Amino acid sequence: MRTPVCDLLGVDFPLFAFSHCRDVVVAVSKAGGFGVLGAVGYSPDELEAELRWIDDRVGGRPYGIDLAIPENMSVKYEQGLTSSSLKQRIPPQHHAFVDALLRRHGIDPYSAAPSDEDRAVGLMHDTAERCMDVAFRHPIRFIVQALGLPPQSMIDRGRAAGVPVGALVGSAEHAIRQVEMGVDVIVAQGTEAGGHCGEVSTMVLVPEVIRAVAGVGAKHTPVLAAGGIVSGRQMAAAMTMGADGAWTGSVWLPTVESEISQVMREKFLAARSRDTVRSRASSGKLARQLRSAWTEAWEQPDSPGYLQMPFQPMLTAAVMQRATKAAEAGSESARQLVNYYVGQGVGLLDDIKSARTVVQEFMEDYAAALERVQTLSA
Amino acid sequence: MRTPVCDLLGVDFPLFAFSHCRDVVVAVSKAGGFGVLGAVGYSPDELEAELRWIDDRVGGRPYGIDLAIPENMSVKYEQGLTSSSLKQRIPPQHHAFVDALLRRHGIDPYSAAPSDEDRAVGLMHDTAERCMDVAFRHPIRFIVQALGLPPQSMIDRGRAAGVPVGALVGSAEHAIRQVEMGVDVIVAQGTEAGGHCGEVSTMVLVPEVIRAVAGVGAKHTPVLAAGGIVSGRQMAAAMTMGADGAWTGSVWLPTVESEISQVMREKFLAARSRDTVRSRASSGKLARQLRSAWTEAWEQPDSPGYLQMPFQPMLTAAVMQRATKAAEAGSESARQLVNYYVGQGVGLLDDIKSARTVVQEFMEDYAAALERVQTLSA
Question: One Pfam family from the UniProt entry (chains A, B) (predicted)?
Answer without folding.
Answer: NMO
